[in-house]
Design goal:
10 helices
Length: 259
């Protein structure tokens, strides 16, 4: 996949096993320049320590609270300090309070649901809107890609992250509708379970994840995020120039079969 000369923002880089890091790795190997971003404090500090391990060092490492418009405006200014235009945005952000997961669906307070929705779904609109002037300047046609987990069914232990991912996927479609006339594509990638720090924070994640290697027609390696990262790189490239508003399943075929 050729991303030579493309300028990509990857928001949500944490450890080397994180989806954001793997996407940044795939993009830089394909020739892209990247700016990394994460929340202020510890996430940003960890990101800074591992950034140098990428095949090509990032142009910059920035921080922003993805739920704060002021922070996102400052992020856009920071990006503009390095680049005149932005060719791609990767939204690799998800969070839910512990009381919104692990079988507590009926008892989760609205405040926790609202936090999950704000960080994991509404933030896609907020981030995209903040950098929209830069995306509009892309000569190649810009691409926005988010990461989801199949929201068409109810999963054990995933609880309120399920409706949150459904909201993210709907947001993806609406952004595609409104930004298509500007030449901006918006898509999501539905990944099978990957053993990341975020995944490990979900109570019962291991029980959910062990289903994939057994039932996915192509098999599934929960420790290998590269098939997902490569698909994101495809969506950032010219090869996907006629694809928008879609959720691409990268799960070994699990979503296509029954029990």
């Amino acid at each position: 996949m050729d991303l030579t000369g493309r300028k990509i923002l990857v928001f949500g880089v944490l450890t080397e096993t994180s989806m954001g890091y793997k996407v940044a790795e795939a993009a830089t190997r394909a020739g892209a320049e990247v700016i990394l971003a994460n929340a202020p404090g510890r996430p940003s500090s960890i990101m800074g320590r591992i950034a140098g391990r990428l095949p090509t060092p990032p142009v910059a490492c920035l921080s922003a609270d993805i739920t704060e418009p002021g922070d996102l405006a400052a992020l856009a200014e920071g990006i503009a300090g390095h680049w005149d235009a932005l060719d791609g945005v990767v939204h690799a952000v998800a969070f839910a309070p512990q009381d919104a997961l692990g079988g507590n669906f009926l008892n989760t307070p609205f405040e926790s649901v609202a936090t999950a929705m704000n960080v994991s779904a509404y933030s896609l609109q907020g981030l995209t809107k903040a950098v929209l002037p830069l995306l509009e300047r892309s000569e190649a046609g810009a691409s926005v890609v988010s990461l989801t987990f199949n929201a068409s069914v109810a999963w054990p232990v995933y609880d309120w992250m399920g409706p949150t991912k459904a909201a993210l996927e709907a947001t993806n479609r609406y952004l595609a509708r409104y930004l298509g006339p500007k030449g901006i594509r918006v898509n999501a990638v539905d990944s099978g379970p990957i053993t990341t720090m975020a995944g490990k924070s979900i109570p019962g994640f291991d029980e959910l994840a062990k289903l994939w290697p057994e039932r996915a027609p192509l098999g599934w390696d929960t420790s290998d995020a590269t098939p997902v990262a490569d698909t994101v790189a495809f969506l950032l490239s010219d090869a996907s120039r006629a694809i928008t508003g879609q959720v691409l399943h990268v799960d070994g075929g699990f979503s296509a079969v029954g029990a």
